[in-house]
Amino acid sequence: MTSADAVVALDVGGTGMKCALVDPDGTVLHTERHPTGAERGPAAVVDTVLEVAEGLAGKARADGRTPVAVGIAVPGVVDEARGVAVWSANVGFRDVPLRELAQARLGLPAALGHDVRAGGLAEARIGAGRGAGHVLFVAIGTGIAAAHVVDGAAAVGAHGAAGEIGHILVRPGGPRCGCGRPGCLEAVASASAVGRRYAELAGEPATAAEVAARAAAGEALAGQVWRETVEALADGLASGQALFDVATIVLGGGLAQAGAQLLDPLRAALHERMTFHREPRLVAAALGDEAGCLGAALLALDDLEKR
Amino acid sequence: MTSADAVVALDVGGTGMKCALVDPDGTVLHTERHPTGAERGPAAVVDTVLEVAEGLAGKARADGRTPVAVGIAVPGVVDEARGVAVWSANVGFRDVPLRELAQARLGLPAALGHDVRAGGLAEARIGAGRGAGHVLFVAIGTGIAAAHVVDGAAAVGAHGAAGEIGHILVRPGGPRCGCGRPGCLEAVASASAVGRRYAELAGEPATAAEVAARAAAGEALAGQVWRETVEALADGLASGQALFDVATIVLGGGLAQAGAQLLDPLRAALHERMTFHREPRLVAAALGDEAGCLGAALLALDDLEKR
After folding, report:
1. ipTM
2. What SUPFAM superfamilies is this protein classified in (chains A, B) (predicted)?
């Protein structure tokens, strides 16, 4: 690759797509955002994805760059080896051969990845987990998901479904999760769960950010909800550490934007739970909501190298 | 290697050592068992390990075989990259450079591994998980530990402590675990936990095997303990599957000797917990208590290939 090359990268979410042109050295050259329009159905979303990717390749050429590969990250169950978006609740994909479709449309080698695993890959290689070797990236937003990254590669699993830390059991008999089971980590500690729990106790709705702000301002109920959340997250991370034994846990997603208000008590609660375990560093994500897009670019570059 | 080669393999446990000469094709040529004698202190245990290994190498030569490598598996925290037994509660090891010691004493290349990870490696490659690609081996005995094996390699972790599924939280506020925390899987579903729980309810002691037999014979209390155990194990395995997404879960250790009495209800309870997950096959281990020793031989052979 020459310095005039560029990778086309897209991170397709339930509501929006984060898109970029990325230099092979990891530098972001250009970013774009587009609505996903998931309500139009999966076929229309695929059309939009391909159109936006084509547009980005054109933009690269117009800027004097040669587009060399396409990386696409999508949520849900993703078969990265076959390049198929197997299943996604919020985008509606069912067995969409997105890699092949992108290759055919753009005439460029393409790679398909899972959004959180791609984000974890980027955080582990060029973000907050840089140099750690063994990293667990945990994204806490509407849901909770993770990527276990060892030596720069994210574990995919036998069926493309690895890393679902949101669905480990932490509160048996607890609130029912979106997945149908009671007491999943996601059902008690996601940003949505924080809002729900506050509404339940206070009788009025609030976002997780509002609960955080009220807790910081000394409101007792908000403080209680925040503490419960931290305890549940610490239980989940401690179970993850028992299984993975990572050097660094990187927290991303909306809830992690609470910064020290989340990280400080969570670090203390995690420390309390470490017995035989080797304690991991717990740090905030460094790449913000562009992590998935950057990770898609890294996947595309990895794939190019293997060819 | 020629067909006249042999690998010296030892699996050092808290009470006994399982030892073997193994053909490079995986065939066991000869087995020996020796007491570990952990009460004599770690230095004496190291002496015994080296002496037994030397004896096995001599036995190989006497049988017309050439000993080509030594593989040793030990419990606790094991740094496989450096070949150091970092920490082991039941054998007393603290930072013992066992690989180097074995190499110096026997004049052969040596590999050091973790007992459960070695057992998992063997089950995944030549045992019940053969051909599955992604395998979780779970050993349920006095304690509970696991090995996550992908494409024939067991995950070691950043500090040699990966796979501690016995210490994921399944019963918050539950019985205190040996590790000091309440509600660990090991504290409610290991063979020892089954015995303890029965004693608590029935007022008389019983081993897990006795509880299993009484449950099978229709004793109500034993049946209740068995059901509780199955539920807790299913919770633990479901959390493991959410994170690892394996194709096959292999159950080993003493409790798995209950066979269908454990596997059938556990399979049903696990099935109930699978929502978005891809359901893994749940099977009994195939290599019995020689899995760790066979795995040690495989590690030694892997290491030979890399040299």
Report:
1. 0.94
2. Actin-like ATPase domain (SSF53067)
